[in-house]
Design a protein that fits this description.
- The chain is built from 17 helices and 15 strands.
- The strands form five sheets. Strands 1-2-5-4-3 form a five-stranded mixed beta sheet, covered by helices on one side. It has a three-stranded antiparallel beta sheet with strand order 8-9-10. Strands 13-14-15 form a three-stranded antiparallel beta sheet.
- Strand 14 and strand 15 form a beta hairpin.
- It is globular.
Length: 551
């Protein structure tokens, strides 16, 4: 496990340094609540991003937000540092409405590939020099861009007959090639949902992987843009990563909206939030562990059912706390919906019983999984993701920490009550499928430490000071053109939200930064040169949920 001393010390860069670095390439300022913003020309994107990465240390393209105003299109590149995510900068690239073309950032940050495809697909901005300018969520035959102004929602969508042609009909065998096209999914147990992986084999070796997403696209961003800040948006986040991380998702929205509206959350409510979030993290990692064992060596009767047994105990605790079993809707702007369930002593005792039994259960998993010879053969040195590729693809969470990238927003960009508690960030330097499993298993134990400390605090908290919500106005209307990007450490990695206010009680733009979206984009580099079984293991080790990938 890496220690704080081993982490690379970030370069401290002031706004003056950034202004000097960009020089006359900065046409103006467009500061956001979380970061200084610089407006640049569409043909300077690669030069500016390269200098910010190489000269100023901004090596993490966290998110790309595209949107349309009445007089322009706009791409916002949200840049951070893996060594210090509190250092942020926004690069704003406006383009005209009649010719929305901007230079692609893909040669600088590989993760911009999927980002820019999504921006084109939903908003309609073209990125010059992009290596693969296809739609990513909608079919290639789709007419229009759903998040652009003037989009006709009633326009019929026609799929041409060519779309129904046999995709491998032109394939033929010749003496110089042994390649074969193979469809994996979208309905396949190894894809953990409706994911279609287009795979090209040379003999038995994977030479190309193209994840085809969008089968579960539910217009979450558009729905949030049509909902009020105070009451209507909060039920939606539970449905992004719908199987495990409800409270973590809710916290991502709450953090962004609370920063925008300058809402201070009571300390007591922060402790409850932290405890609930870590219970969700344990539930998520249990699901990841059980399904991964099923993927890798077909263990349904033991590991899969054991993991779900323990996950069910966590779900029972969360149901007691929130009243819901999956879609919790427990967070509120300014705090949480209500205090711990009564009788408090029983709830605390039930949670402590789970924590007391957890170490023996983790030992049991290690006996059944990490020491299993088949598991080791399938996972050691497969799905290798080098640290430089982690950063290039914008990977976060256990996927990044399994490659030795010591990045965790709970510690590096503190929120909630984490900075007041004792716990460790887990990293492994194996860079393979095995290392990612080890990280998740050890993170379960760290989450248990956090929950234990939260219970101690909640148990002794004075009854007269148990404030669960701040005094929040009934209607929130942030000043027009207020912009913020905030993120939390979800179970899968950095889950971020960008919000732009238009002065009403609903967001002018609402953008979700999905960790699963970024992590899945790295599947190609992880799988190249390996076998189909290794591809299945690599996909499972990413722990994706398609509801969050597609949003």
């Amino acid at each position: 496990m890496s220690t704080e001393l081993e982490r690379q010390q970030p370069i401290e860069v002031s706004e003056g340094d950034l202004e000097a670095l960009l020089g006359d390439r900065a046409l103006g300022r467009d500061d956001h609540l979380n970061a200084p913003g610089f407006v640049i020309r569409p043909d300077d994107v690669q030069d500016v991003l390269t200098d910010l990465r190489d000269e100023a240390g901004f090596d993490h393209l966290s998110c790309l937000t595209a949107q349309q105003y009445s007089d322009r299109y706009e791409s916002i590149y949200h840049l951070k540092k893996y060594a210090d995510p509190t250092q942020e900068v926004s690069v704003v690239v406006p383009t005209s409405t009649d010719d929305p073309v901007s230079q692609s950032a893909e040669p600088v940050f590989r993760t911009a590939d999927w980002h820019e495809r999504e921006a084109f697909d939903l908003v309609g901005i073209d990125y010059e020099g992009h290596p693969d300018p296809r739609r990513i969520l909608l079919p290639e035959t789709w007419q229009g861009h759903p998040l652009s102004k003037g989009y006709d929602q009633e326009k019929p969508q026609i799929v041409t007959l060519s779309e129904h042609a046999n995709p491998i009909q032109p394939d033929h065998h010749d003496e110089e090639s042994d390649t074969m096209f193979l469809n994996i999914g979208p309905h396949h147990p190894a894809t953990h949902g409706v994911l279609h992986v287009k795979t090209v084999l040379d003999g038995e070796t994977v030479v190309d992987v193209d994840p085809d997403i969008g089968y579960l696209h539910r217009c979450e961003e558009q729905m949030c843009q049509q909902s009020t800040y105070r009451h209507q948006i909060m039920p939606y986040p539970d449905r992004w990563d719908y199987v495990s991380a409800g409270l973590l998702n809710e916290w991502a929205y709450a953090r962004a909206a609370e920063d925008m509206a300058d809402i201070d959350v009571p300390e007591y409510a922060q402790i409850i939030r932290t405890m609930g979030a870590e219970l969700c993290r344990i539930a998520s990692h249990m699901l990841a562990l059980g399904t991964f064992a099923l993927d890798v060596y077909g263990d349904f009767t033991a590991v899969f059912q054991y993991a779900f047994r323990d996950r069910e105990v966590v779900q029972d605790i969360l149901e007691d706390l929130t009243g819901q079993r999956l879609m919790f809707n427990y967070f509120r702007l300014g705090g949480v919906a209500w205090d711990l369930p009564e009788p408090r002593d029983e709830f605390i005792a039930k949670t402590r019983d789970f924590l007391d039994e957890l170490p023996a259960k983790v030992d049991e998993y290690n006996d059944m999984i990490t020491s299993n010879e088949i598991f080791q053969i399938r996972c050691h040195n497969t799905g290798v993701l080098e640290p430089e590729d982690v950063k290039d693809y914008g990977c976060t969470g256990p996927v990044a920490r399994g490659s030795g990238v010591d990045y965790d927003l709970r510690r590096d960009d503190p929120y909630g009550y984490y900075e007041n508690l004792e716990w460790d960030v887990i990293t492994e330097d194996g860079c393979d499928n095995y290392a990612r499993v080890l990280v998740r298993m050890q993170e379960v134990e760290e989450s248990a430490k956090i929950i234990e400390q939260c219970l101690d605090l909640l148990e002794d908290w004075p009854e007269d000071d148990r404030e669960v919500q701040a005094n929040v106005p009934r209607t929130l209307k942030p000043d027009a053109d207020t912009e913020v990007y905030r993120a939390v450490e979800g179970a899968k990695g950095e889950l971020g939200i960008y919000i732009r206010s238009d002065g009403t009680d609903k967001p002018g733009r609402f953008k979700i930064r999905s960790p699963c979206f970024h992590n899945l984009s790295a599947l190609e580099v992880m799988s190249e040169g390996e076998y189909i079984p290794d591809l299945v293991a690599s996909l499972g080790s990413l722990d994706i949920v398609l509801g969050e990938v597609d949003r």
